[in-house]
Amino acid sequence: MGNVSRVIIRPPGVSGKAKRGQICFDAAFETGNLGKANLIGDFEYDLFLRPDTCNPRYRFWFNFTVDNVKQDQKVIFNLVNISKSRNLFNSGLTPLVKSSSRPKWQRLPKKHVFYYRSPHHQNHYVLSFVFCFDKEDDVYQFALAPPYSYSRLQSYLNVIENRQNQAEKKFTKSVLTKSLQNRNVDLITIDHVTGKLKTNRIDRSFIRVIVILCRSHANASPASFMCQGFLEFLLSSHNIAKILRENFVFKIVPMVNPDGVFLGNNRCNLIGQDMNRVWQVATEFSHPEIYAIKNMLREIDNSDSYQIDFVVDLHAHTSLHGCFIYGNTYEDVYRYERHLVFPRLFAGNAPDYAANNMIFNADEKKSGCARRFCCERLSDTVNAYTLEISMGGHYLKDGKTVAAYTEEGYYRCGRNLARTFLQYYRFINVLPVPLPTEVRQKKRRPRTHQSRSRSKTRYEVKPRPKTTRCYAPISYTNLSICYDSGGSSDEGGFSPTRAVAPGSSHFSGYRHYRRVASSTTIPSTSSQQHQQTHDQFALLRIKSGRFDLAHDPLLHDYCGKTKSQSPEKQTRFEVPVNVPPKPYLSIIDLNQLTRGSLKMKSASFED
């Protein structure tokens, strides 16, 4: 269909057998796209993309191989006829590459990729990237996104069909119709409800149906990975999958446009028609795939036993990051509010969801797409959405870093879609919400993932023996509290001022009081007696058990006895007192301190 087929690019004036280093381009395979290659320098090539069949408007998808290279050969590839200027290459998207010895797709480094307007190519946008071939015998393949071909889909469907138990089939595969080039349009039906329930639309006991469409555009290979992840999850033994299979019917069309996918087109089918813009005018002869899907939807919608709840069309976006949903707007406010529920729930299940890209509209330009047709031509109970996922990546939590999508990331998005269906039906009370005791507990990490430094021997933890608690040597020589500070409590205001004994620190009180106790008794003045009173009731002084009863009149009240002793005769007692006496503190209620009350208090203090 116009792709290059084993074309060897030789320098001007060179003929004969190709030498090593004269690159051979090939795109004559399924999903391949490369129309022409020109050598414009010693190591620079201009590459021209092949437009869609019968439609020269769309040129964005590329997928080609390169071989017959020389080791450590460096080249520059220029894609010169990209039709879509607004795309993810402006936001850091880079082409994918893999080789025969390294079959895993990898993104090229950003520093080797350039997207710019070229004056040498009529001021069109050009994608240039630099690459170095490190192995001569390898075949290198470059693509816009991981390809998902028609043959891969058929192989996958055959594998899961042969893998399931014949006695209890989880799904049935049928051919909905044939494409223009006689390729199968497969229909996967998961129906475990029909034989269990007797339904009647009048009694509102009908069976709910969920329809999934995928790959209307040929370049939307990430949507196929998302659909495969969704299908694998539904067919698994997961508890959520079991509940969904037992209560709902799923109709899945994994590839709506098989001809466009096989030919390597960007959007269109064989005759150049955009499959997501012709739903209102689709005919049996020009668009047999859309025509068959419309008949299936009408048949289910007119049935007395079934009700279509969802029609979700899976797509891949080339201009925005993350995954997001396009919806519709309705004049009925209640229907519009009901229509907003599912995107909100999906946003909670998908960490890569981009709510800023979500759109709900009734644009006339999109009247031919699947979601607009289903919301206008089917019943009011139908919720039709377009689920988009980026070809590039999604933003992380910081909102600046972009993490590139991999195949596993697309699979995960499909699994999140299945989980959202269960959450939605529990939200609208179709399915019962499990009790907390029925919720499956979180699995613990297996022992193989534990740290190796942890010993396997378990030791019994013995209780700590009870020991005598000794107090820290803190001096309470002065318990007077000063509230004269004008600062806040954080700056030291309203905090007690504790004086330290002269010639000693806070940690030398014990030695100081030992010296006081061992000193001779000398008649002292009233101030010395007051100081001695505080010294005698210091914490370490009491713990040592050495204090004088003769020179302290307050001691009689403290001990609860009045005993007279002569100054000459001094008797020392060992009294087991554990705590110091509670000092007398004057408390001020700060809540009652107003400007007037402060003046009154200051006046009373002056009096």
TrEMBL record:
Q: What positions constitute the catalytic site?
A: 388 (proton donor/acceptor)
Q: Does the keyword Protease apply?
A: yes
Sequence segments annotated as region (Disordered): 439-464
Domain Peptidase M14 residue range list: 146-425
Q: Where is the composition biased (Basic residues)?
A: 441-456
Per its Swiss-Prot or TrEMBL entry, what cofactor is needed? Zn(2+)
What GO molecular-function term can you cite, just one? carboxypeptidase activity
Q: Which SUPFAM superfamilies does this chain map to?
A: Zn-dependent exopeptidases
Which UniProt key words apply to this protein?
Answer: Carboxypeptidase, Hydrolase, Protease
Name the Gene3D superfamilies for this protein: 2.60.40.3120, Zn peptidases
Annotated family: Belongs to the peptidase M14 family.
* Protein name according to UniProt: Cytosolic carboxypeptidase 6 isoform X3
Source species, please? Musca domestica
Q: Which gene encodes it?
A: LOC101897289
